[in-house]
Amino acid sequence: MSEDISQDSAGFATRSRIDTTKPHSARFWNYFVGGKDNYEVDREIGDEIKGIFPGLVDVAQTSRQFLGRAVRYLAGEQGIRQFLDIGTGLPTADNTHEVAQRVAPDARIVYVDNDPIVLAHAHALLTSTPEGRTDYLDADLYDPEAVLRAAAGTLDLTQPVGLVILNTLGHVGDYGQARDLVRRLMAGLGSGSHLVISDSTATSEGMIAASQAYNASGAVPYYVRSVEEIAGFLDGLELVEPGVVRVPEWRPEAPGEPVRDGAAVDAYCAVGRKS
């Protein structure tokens, strides 16, 4: 385990909220993308799930690649200069602010998470170009209006915002509630805002078995959904081509990025624009 958490200036109050006896989704995902900020309990369930369904590693890695492509598209082709990233997870390479500010140094990014692990690493996210700004909010997806109020301290919500929610809505057990949370968040953003979304899907027996094993581990459950349910999160938005597709199939970039066999990746994504 990285020493960053134990030495972080966030202090004892934050560290005391970290439960190292059960697997944790951010640490588990961090292990799958090659990070070092995880504990033995996370690696154990990770290795167990690799044995059940090795393809979940591809889901983790290709989802990260999708994030980079989507942010580059919004910043480079759509001129988006503001991003609200909810369910941030642990920082690795090419975080949202790094990708956005490489394209547009004046971009502003707000990360949102209510997880003590992520809070303990917030200092790694709170970096920015001199022209832009990066902030972190200790806030809860289940209170969208509070998230928007807090984000308004950094972002101008009357102007277009890129709302990023990756591999997070699966933690909301009730599908209707998950859709409502997305609707309320998008309702508070200006015209021209975009929703960037992806989640694992119940599109193979292996993924379903992996989800069941993860949920049985004592971690906060993650529910895989149908492709139609993922598409439902974008109701009322104008879908950006190529629509709702497996994560490697969304605008793949050949230079430096291998395009994996989409049939092997049980995760779907999409980008939608608010009129």
Task: Considering the chains and any ligands shown, give keywords for the structure.
single chain; 275 residues; globular; disordered N terminus
Summarize the structure.
The protein is an alpha/beta fold and 275 residues long. Helices cover 39% and strands 15% of the residues.
Account of the 3D structure:
By secondary structure, this protein is α/β, with parallel strands linked by helices. About 40% of the residues lie in helices and about 15% in strands. The protein has twelve helices and eight strands. Strands 1, 2, 3, 4, 5, 6, 7 and 8 form an eight-stranded mixed sheet that branches. β1 (about 80-85), α6 (about 95-105) and β2 (about 110-115) form a beta-alpha-beta unit. α5 (about 55-75) packs parallel to α6 (about 95-105). The longest helix has 22 residues, at about 55-75. The radius of gyration is 18 Å and the shape is globular. The termini are far apart. About 45% of the residues are buried. The model is unreliable at about 1-15 (pLDDT under 50).
